[in-house]
Amino acid sequence: MHKNLPKIICCLILCWAVCVPMFCQAVQSMTVGESREARQKMIDYSKQFVGVPYVYGGASKSGMDCSGLIFTVANDAIGIKLPRSAAGIYSAVRIINDSEKEAGDLVFFKTVGSRISHVGLYLGNNQFIHAASDGPNTGVIISSLKESYWSRTYAGAGRFLPATGDTSEQRVVMEGGSAGASQGGGLFASSGSGDNAAAGSNAGGKGGGGEGANGFFRRVAIDGTLTGDWTFFSANRFHLIFRGVTLDAHARYTGGNLEPGFGFSLSYDPAMKVVKLPLVFSLTVAKGIRVYAGPVFAMGKPVEPGTDGNRVKGSIFPGVIGLCLQTPTLKAGKVELSLVQDLRYTVFNDMDGAALSPLSSLSSGLVFSTGIRVTFPLSNFM
Predict the structure, then answer these.
(1) Is 118 among the catalytic positions?
(2) Does the CA dihedral 142-145-146-149 come out positive or negative?
(3) Catalytic annotation, pick one of 2, 11, 130, 250
(4) Catalytic pick from 19, 118, 250, 324?
(5) Nearest Cα to Cα of residue 368 among 317, 318, 323
(6) 3-class DSSP state for residue 219?
(7) Catalytic residue among 2, 10, 66, 239
(8) Which of 118, 230, 269, 284 could share a disulfide with 109, CB 3.0–4.6 Å?
């Protein structure tokens, strides 16, 4: 077990280091002109799918669903990979005020209960292109946000490309010509030309530097977590052991499929008579699933839980590796609340530095943490 831990930790840190710039460089380095051109490319590319039938899980001209359309357009037109579900896309983008939305942003709907279940590409002038699964017209169609059904289920707009300042509704479909859209979902009468895209690219606009640092920080979310820690066995028997409390602070970048982050914790473990201060690098690999690893600084004279004071020694590196599961968030004003269940393993050795027995190692280092998390998306405060 101990032989593999350094390799696992190094792999996680390497993944974190590689993935941090992956989405940032592709998006945040865009100028206003580049963003305008990327938006135009997506809109132009999306037009070819109008009339494609709705197929759940589909992402091709033989059939596609709503998230399949957005995933395919973003990936094929501008080389950016978004999550493959409407809820996943909603979690990955920056939610913006409705008055800020521009052609090329995304619009989201709650068509099933209270969760995000539908997504479309906004075209301007209250029109959007999407893959509808129900109603008089299905498949990839163009609809209006003013239609009663879409107005009633509309949940808001999101952005993953830098703003261009083109919020005026005079820019219908990014100057790409007549939309040819109707409530019946008719096909486009004409496709926007590449000349229009190039003209838009050179037009400039307000905010010449793109979103810059401000746009980066809008994608940062800060978590504060308080947990009660426990295990259900010691080295000699099975029984519930209270392992103290942990206060955790963590920041993550929410702009891509993988969300890199960094955090620290302050943990008091009365069963081991020790205070632990882990510093961790993390990756949120899916909605509500986070893996992390990093060094741990132990203060005190730790003992093995459930023994007569058998002394053990903390290891700074390798330190801790863990998995955190989080429930869907509940919005409370500008913050989000969720429950968390954490499983982490901290390395402890014998006093002479030798490895503990497997059972003693698990009873000392394996801890379950259950608690509540408060998330502060900085976009809600900027």
Answers:
(1) yes
(2) positive
(3) 130
(4) 118
(5) 323
(6) coil
(7) 66
(8) 118
Query: CB atoms < 10 A from the CB of 332, how many?
Result: 9
Cis status of the peptide bond prior to 318, with omega within 30 of 0: yes
The pLDDT tens digits of the residues spanning 234-264 come to 888 899 999 999 999 999 987 666 789 999 9
Q: How far apart are CA 362 and CA 233, in angstroms?
A: 9
Q: How far apart are CA 39 and CA 42, in angstroms?
A: 5
Tokens 């995304």 belong to which residue? 106
Amino acid at 135: G
The Cα 133–Cα 105 span in angstroms is 21
Round to whole Å and give the CA distance between 178 and 248.
53
Contacts of 360 by beta carbon, 8 Å cutoff, 6+ apart: 235, 304, 310, 312
Cα–Cα distance measured from residue 55 to residue 64, given in angstroms and rounded to the nearest whole number: 5
The answer to whether 342 and 321 have CB atoms below 8 angstroms apart is: no
Q: Which of 99, 95, 102 is nearest to 170 (CA)?
A: 102
> pLDDT for 47-83, tens place per residue?
999 999 999 999 999 999 999 999 999 999 998 989 9
- 343 vs 88, 98, 213, 231, CA distance in Å? 24, 39, 34, 10
